Structure to design on (314 residues):
């Protein structure tokens, strides 16, 4: 699902020529170790001061804090931590995101996915749809892991479902769960036209009771190669408790929206939409739980609204 609220961060100032808070020039100021500093200045240091360590320590403090001291003097803001080690986020700016879409995503997007994306764009809840770059990522991931038996929780009009269906082999299967069939039927004619509807088993209704039934039946244990979760965020941990039994060892669960509109790092008093604020704590709790879960290897990707890839290892 595409995020709605964008919490601005300092990284965007690096690509915004009009924003004066850019920290890049200060970032390149050198930092010297005390020993190197001592070696550097010792030839010009009066003899007595060689035995006066506080001088070296003071000079070292000034050098190591120079960028912050200059920033304090000039009123510039402190650089974000990630800029200290090189900024690698893909979410630097809207222009960069647009560049990714136009260069690498839209030209490779299958015609059926483009059609579904355009139909969905006219729907009043279009904010819920999976973004085109995430659809491309899912499609490739499924091919990389040779997925055959999959599940999707949260279908809406079916953009991620179609990207999955197109990636699976002819005899591949997707158990698709959603409380709303009406929206699925918006996309269904396009999915049928793409020739992949036979791979989909759509079930209308809340996912949790169905998962409970499946967990009770051992034949479903370890039976899924891939599961994509993009539904009610307040149930993600409940889903995880069940899905961990249903995905095979070596299989993958993808949890969507795990960066939740960037709101996870917003200050407590930030003006967030009600639903963003409501689900934020659930997403924070999920991220902590996944990071601490020894049964999975994880990778948090800043694709779309953030997707956490979990590979079951035990
Ligand atoms: C963000 S949308 C899914 C977007 C979809 N993956 C796509 O590519 O367009 C979330 C969906 O979850 C569904 N949903 C919400 N609660 C659910 C539940 N308890 N069980 C199953 N589906 C649910 C909603 O009806 C909605 O269609």
């Amino acid at each position: 699902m595409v995020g709605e609220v964008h919490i601005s961060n300092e990284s965007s100032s690096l690509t915004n020529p009009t924003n004066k808070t850019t920290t890049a020039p200060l970032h390149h100021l050198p930092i010297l170790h005390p020993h190197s500093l001592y070696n550097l200045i010792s030839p010009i240091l009066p003899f007595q001061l060689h035995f006066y360590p506080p001088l070296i320590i003071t000079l070292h403090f000034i050098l190591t804090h120079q960028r912050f001291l200059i920033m304090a003097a000039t009123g510039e803001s402190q650089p974000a931590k990630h800029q200290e080690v090189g900024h690698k986020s893909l979410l630097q700016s809207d222009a960069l995101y647009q560049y990714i879409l136009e260069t690498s995503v839209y030209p490779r997007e299958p015609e059926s996915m483009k059609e579904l994306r355009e139909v969905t764009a006219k729907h009043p809840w279009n904010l819920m749809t999976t973004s085109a770059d995430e659809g491309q990522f899912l499609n490739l991931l499924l091919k990389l892991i040779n997925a055959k038996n999959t599940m999707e929780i949260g279908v809406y009009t079916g953009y991620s479902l179609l990207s999955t269906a197109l990636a699976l082999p002819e005899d591949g299967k997707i158990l698709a769960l959603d409380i709303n069939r009406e929206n699925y039927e918006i996309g269904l004619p396009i999915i049928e036209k793409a020739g992949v509807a036979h791979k989909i088993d759509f079930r209308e209704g809340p996912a949790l009771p169905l998962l409970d039934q499946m967990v009770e039946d051992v034949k479903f244990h370890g039976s899924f190669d891939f599961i994509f979760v993009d539904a009610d965020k307040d149930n993600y941990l409940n889903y995880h408790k069940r899905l961990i039994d249903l995905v095979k060892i070596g299989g993958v669960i993808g949890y969507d929206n795990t960066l939740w509109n960037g709101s996870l790092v917003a200050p407590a008093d930030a003006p967030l939409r009600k639903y963003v604020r409501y689900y934020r704590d659930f997403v924070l709790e999920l991220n902590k739980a996944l990071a601490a879960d020894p049964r999975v290897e994880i990778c948090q990707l800043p694709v779309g609204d953030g997707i956490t890839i979990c590979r079951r290892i035990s």
The pocket of S-adenosylmethionine is lined by residues 1, 128-130, 153-157, 159-160, 177-180, 183, 206-207, 230-232 (CB under 6 Å). The CA atoms of residues 173 and 199 lie 5 Å apart. Residues 274-292 form the longest helix (19 residues).
